[in-house]
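Weekend entry, working from home. Most of the wet-lab plans are on hold until the incubator is repaired, so I used the time to fold the two sequences that have been sitting in the queue since the last round of cloning. Logging both here for the record. First:
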Amino acid sequence: MPTLRFALAQQDFAVGAVSANADRVLELAATARGQGAGLLVCPELALCGYPPEDLLLRPGFLDACDAAMARIAKDCQGIEVLLGHPLRTAKPGHTPDECSSKPPLLNAASLLRDDTEKVRYAKQALPNYTVFDEKRYFTPGSEDRVIEIHGVRVGLLICEDIWVDAPAQAACDAGAELLLVINASPYCRGKRQERAEILQRQARTHGVGIAYLNLVGGQDDLLFDGSSLLVDGNGQLAAQAPAFIDALLRAEYDAERRCFAAFDWPTTSPQAEVAVLYDGLVRGIRDYVRKNGFPGVLLGLSGGIDSALTLALAVDALGAKAVTAVMMPSRYTSQLSLDGARDQAKRMAVGYHVLPIEAAFESISATLAPVFASTKPDRTEENVQSRIRGALLMALSNKHGQMLLATGNKSEMAVGYATLYGDMCGGYAPLKDVYKTCVYALARWRNGQSEVIPPTVIERPPTAELRANQIDQDSLPEYAVLDAILERFIEAEQSQAEIVAAGFKVETVRQVTRLVLGNEFKRRQAAPGPRVSRRAFGRERRYPISSGWRGG
């Protein structure tokens, strides 16, 4: 009976690192060959990393991809390699039609062995929604590919091709016994289950097994979770790889029985979504810091929940020696905050500094006194404190080379409850797409593994401590209410009327939506952070800064 032994490279192939990615492919091919695999499968656009964005417009970048493809084809001896890469459909130097700026490119997969490119397949369904912008760069393929590999007829698909019906149907009509799908599918909450359901439906519909390989790793504001899947021809899940783990996944496919056997896959028990989310945020920090060459990170540790969770994530990502926490007390900082910050820094064994800002605040206040003489203290004085802290943290970052982590969450960014050039300072914002209520859930989950966040930090009322007796709910609805409204308004794009009809007070809905629409200018200046929801601030939510619209 025909069987195919193969290995899925659930790995992080960095954007732009063409030569290093080629080296990695060859290393994995040698390992897979040594383990008895006849085929190594690499993710979508693994050669150049995903998404390469406007690097695809650089001729020199495409030249490097072509040269790397030729090197891999020459050096991958004794094993076939299926590799995702950008493919020029015209000779170098070709000028696109004057009426179109689209480069002549395909999002392709090629099967390589012994200095030969045996077959090419071009992605047919090009996504152009949420974070995807593939129609900016690629021309869709139009030909189906079913090839025989070690006696098994394999239909090749790339990512979005499996989410629509036509490519899979065409491959199966052409005699495919197995669908092999390479992917760069970004993570968001609920996506793993959604993928599994799509694959199970396609497998049942066509009666073929599906091997689904996904990229893993953090790339700027995107997270790729891996979570690669094997689905038998009856729609049963044969194996699923863990999320956010690099692995070389060996398997065998029995074409007669239409089922898989998985060998030595990393074991994992079913994970709650909060656990997967936590692992994703950790991976995002680690990869952003590593790929940008920083030796470590620092952050302002206020004694509040957001900075406490950020510190836990950073230490889990990088290790305590690569993390520095800084407490910057003012006249309004409570003993509870001082104790909580010091306690957590000790628990997590990080570098810890206390830099009081009172003298700087008094000096700036004295400088401003002549021009503020006829005014009363207000938000201005609060923001001065935040900006002093931002200046101190950036000075430490400049001096020691550590990247500053911003600690704000999605609830705050949505309504503008953050200070430009103050607490918004930073190179990366791990909680940028995490609502406040989810921050609490993540902190409680992390403490369930080991208590690294002092319970008093989690239990206390949230406060910015920029004036006496301040709590967040002086300015905002309770976070449970705020986040419920924000999710409806941002993720679901519901109108004010729809949100009110769901049971929320009219005045509260109007306040929240007005704040969201009026603070786009702040969000445009915020640090990048990992996308974990279906509607993050950034590349997929494109609202104008200058806008008179404040309606529902």
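Second, folded right after the first finished:
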Amino acid sequence: MIKTLHFFVILLFSFCLTIQVNAQIELVPPSHPVYDYLKRMQVKGIIPEYNSSNIPISRGEIAGYLKIIEGQKLTGTDKYMMEDYKAEFEFDMTGSLRKSTNLFNKFNSESIFGNHRQKYIYNYADTNASLFFDINGDFYQRNSKGDSIGNNAITLGELGFRIRGSLYNSVGFYLRASNGQKIKGQSKDIIFAANYDPLLKANTKFVNEQKNFDSYEGYLRYQTPSNWLSVTVGKEALYEGFGYIDKMFLSNNTIPFNFLKLDIAYKKFKYSFLYGSIKGDSLGIDLQSKNIVSHRLDIGLTRKFKLGFYESVIISNNPFSFTYLNPISFLTSADLNTGAKETTDNNTLAGFDFELAPIKNITFQGTLLIDDLNLSTLYKSDSTSNDNKFGYQLGIFWADALSLPNVNLKLEYTRLDPFVYSHRSNKSSYTNWDMSLGHSVPPNSDEIALNLHYDVTNRIKFNFLYQFQRSGEGILIDSITGKLIINYGGNINRGDGDLYITKINFLNGNRINRSIITFNLVFEPIKQYFVELKYQLRILNLKYLDRQVNESLYWATLRVDL
């Protein structure tokens, strides 16, 4: 059986050119903790060239950073973490598989529960190609208790696989697929789980059938040998922006979507073009199509100062257009010159961000988001001034905070004007499956967030997050005529009424203050076996009702990733 499988793999890749494969082409998902490690090393001045504003990046790029870190003076915990990453990214760093275990060839307790080698169900590599096959399983328990969400408890199980590899050092492939099932829980528990998990919320099968759910990511990626050009076609999570706690442009607040992405890099410059398909509706009615097109230009002006420019357009009910497929264009101008009778059908956004590292262990970032800008109404006091919508963010990252090794402290302030991310047609909101593509706070809100992360050891990680949010919400509709009376601009999926009713000042409407406290502990007792515990307390002060609502959420996860 083993010889047969080896023969099949060699035959599958026999068309590849005989070029040594050392670094993998495929991307590392942005949720991988190695990005936190690289960011910490950047802030400490060890890899100042690293840019966290446009991820994921390839395994080869990550291996290059790890090689630099390996030769530096590190804390004890950072050294042990480096040893774990050297095992996981061994093939990308050295081209060998000496620190990995192939469970297909050696299936025993030592291989399954070994604590130092990277475990694969199957791996293969020669001078032409590589193939890695893993399985993963998760067991979740999620509970809630609160005045508004009630008492809920649901148990979920999930099993999946992952296959990745590279062909002749130019083409990478990746596929992760899983299927999950409700083990225990009632209808109300399913609604609770879907409301607090983007994956479940976007899984209509789970919500409707109330039993099974599934997900996948997969893509093909071409990369030139020097990585000056790469093209990715498929589905994967994408993050864009310098935000340390949450990002303004593309974030993890929704699920991955299908896209075509072009990346060009030369020295201090990196340019990205994205054309993607997202899910949308208008007042509960599904749209035939909804797309996102974006450009991003990153410039590393110096080792201490980075600058980025971003623009995007959300296109509804137009499945494909060469106007937006042009990777070298100005999207706002392209949208205004489509020849359409209405130039407000689509939602255009632009912005820029920067990161400054004035001294070792500290960086600052700032972001400005321009949802709409009309200079003729910028300083008016009537409803037309609502046509100007901005968001901004300021943040600080402090590594080894208070001289405590392996403690990272982040502080970030974010403000979104009324109607930011939303759109007056309700079709082109900056959302995917009704969830924000950008920051998690609703429009007409601000947030101050404090995050403390402590790597107790290389296998024990503690995270504390405090968020204080202020929001102005509310939509009033005439009960007889159904006519919109006022919209305070606090609902990302309802942008109608911004121009023809009244000027909406920041935090007008039904005022709500939220205090959200989150504790998270991840324990890896054996390499690639995880236990995660999470507790969240949400205190909602409904000031317009003079009422306070308390909610508690509990998560427990057992995960195996082989």
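Plan for Monday: verify the second prediction. The two ends are 21 Å apart (CA to CA).
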